[in-house]
Amino acid sequence: MSSNNPQTREWQALSNDHHLAPFSDFKQLKEKGPRIITNAKGVYLWDSEGNKILDGMAGLWCVAIGYGRDELADAASKQMRELPYYNLFFQTAHPPALQLAKAISEIAPQGMNHVFFTGSGSEGNDTVLRMVRHYWAVKGKPSKKVIISRINGYHGSTVAGASLGGMTYMHEQGDLPIPGIVHIAQPYWFGEGGDMTPDEFGVWAAEQLEKKILEVGEDNVGAFIAEPIQGAGGVIVPPATYWPKIKEILARYDILFVADEVICGFGRTGEWFGSDFYDLKPDLMTIAKGLTSGYIPMGGVIVRDEVVKVLNEGGDFNHGFTYSGHPVAAAVGLENIRILREEKIVERVKSETAPYLQKRLRELSDHPLVGEVRGVGMLGAIELVKDKATRERYVDRGVGMICRTFCFNNGLIMRAVGDTMIISPPLVISFAEIDELVEKARKCLDLTLAELQK
Ligand code: PXG
User: What is the rounded CA–CA span in Å between residue 172 and residue 156?
Assistant: First the structure.
């Protein structure tokens, strides 16, 4: 712990003495101490040392409308005074959850008019697993239990979420995946496309779905789940051929399609949902993050009308959470959606700021360290390589972490997934802030290259 600021040291001591942090090496964190983030406004964070940092990740992909919107605080405060808690179990409901369900139906793809609320994206995907299996049981096909997912997909950190996800380092801890979940290849051309063109590789990766359906047997497959664009896996934008081929395959088999919209939902691609961007027509969509802009925890599953019709015949669905549709979270979600709609934030992303961000980001392609820049909407990835032509990586140099550290120390949060740098800024980022982001990114790429050449 290196800070000279006694307040920072005090907070770091609390971390040491009392806190176990998510996705962290506990021992290493004790040695270094966490960076303490104290306040935020717009697209900027401040830490306890007084550093101002451009948050290129919108928190953890969630702060869509930016930090510091009083309207959300006011909505929460008003709701807490009126009805701070009641549940949706046992034939009761409350206005905020019902109004939010309606508001979500209005922006969701056509024919998706019902929402099951959860407390997080992980709980949303646990709900998906149970709902898919219940659906097929009600339809008289209880053998259709298997869910097909993808290697390096991310679907959360609960037992079902981590199992659906394809992160092997997560599976290694705790005997995951649970039975009944199988994984196919991801459409990650830059990392795994070999000698194929992106289009050839997109078709190949999509064909793995059909292969797996045939291997497991259509009678045993309940659903395929996928993020329209993989987020935590490294902002993996599939080749143009991938989703059309997947849609063709899905049309041939009687299985449900689940779009995990936890990152892509609520405007990140420049459309309300990633499923709109790729015209995917899912049966279920998992949501969280942008639903409340991260101001308060909330997730859910949006369900297609035909699926609801079947579930309506199934008696009790024995599933739910104390905080399903929590009134305060619902009030915040409603206000967040009101702001997104009334300020036309998604439209502005699509027609103005995302095209600008994507154009400026691609200027980094000429940097000697950069093998590829890709992105859609307010999502971007920069691949760091040793050899641009062959896509060869530096071995065992931790290039991504070096770059990430330079970013952090130069006032920019840009995440590293291996040697892939990723960004997902608040949707409200301005042109000038995009310029700042790209300029800081370039400076940090220069610093990283210099470090590697030392
Ligand atoms: N699905 C997707 C696509 C996600 O990105 C979840 C489900 C789970 O949501 P909850 O609310 O349970 O966290 C996520 C979450 C990272 C990172 O390292 C990404 C997430 C969570 C934690 C870390 O990028 N995404």
Answer: 15
**Peptide bond preceding 177 in cis form (omega within 30 of 0):** yes
Q: Is 374 helix (H, G, I), strand (E, B) or coil?
A: strand
Hey, is 400 helix, strand or coil?
helix
Q: Write down how long the chain is.
A: 454
Cα–Cα distance, 242 to 147 (Å, whole number): 19
Euclidean distance between CA atoms 244 and 265, whole angstroms: 20
DSSP 24: S
300 within 8 A of 330, measured Cβ to Cβ = no
Q: Which of 275, 219, 214, 197 is nearest to 249 (CA)?
A: 214
- Give the strand pairing for 415-417 and 256-260: unpaired
Q: What is the number of the ligand 1 atom nearest to the C-alpha of 422?
A: 24
- Global pTM value: 0.98
CB 129, CB 160: distance < 8 Å: yes
Q: Which residue has the tokens 């700021």?
A: 353
Q: How far apart are CA 362 and CA 205, in angstroms?
A: 25
Is the distance from CB of 371 to CB of 391 less than 8 angstroms? yes
Give dist(CA 10, CA 328) in Å, integer.
32
Q: What is the largest CA-CA distance in the chain?
A: 67
In this predicted model, what pLDDT tens digit does every residue of 99-113 receive, in sequence order?
999 999 999 999 999
CA distances from 141 to 71, 136, 138, 145, 218 (A): 47, 5, 7, 9, 11
User: Hey, is 238 helix, strand or coil?
Assistant: coil
d(CA 78, CA 94) in angstroms, rounded, equals 15
Ligand 1 lining (C-beta closer than 6 Å)? 60, 120-122, 125, 154-156, 161, 227, 231-232, 260, 262-263, 288, 299
The token pair at 168 is 């092997």
- Could you give the C-alpha distances from 436 to 20, 85, 395, in angstroms and in order? 34, 42, 30
> pLDDT tens-digit profile of 348-371?
999 999 999 999 999 999 999 999
| Residue pLDDT, tens place only, 44-96 | 999 999 999 999 999 999 999 999 999 999 999 999 999 999 999 999 999 99
Q: Ligand 1 center to residue 196 CA distance, Å?
A: 30
R_g (Cα) of the chain, nearest Å: 22
Please identify, by atom number, the ligand 1 atom nearest to the C-alpha of residue 227: 3
Question: What's the pLDDT band for 4 if we cut at 50, 70, 90?
Answer: confident
Helix (H) or strand (E) holding 206: helix 198-216
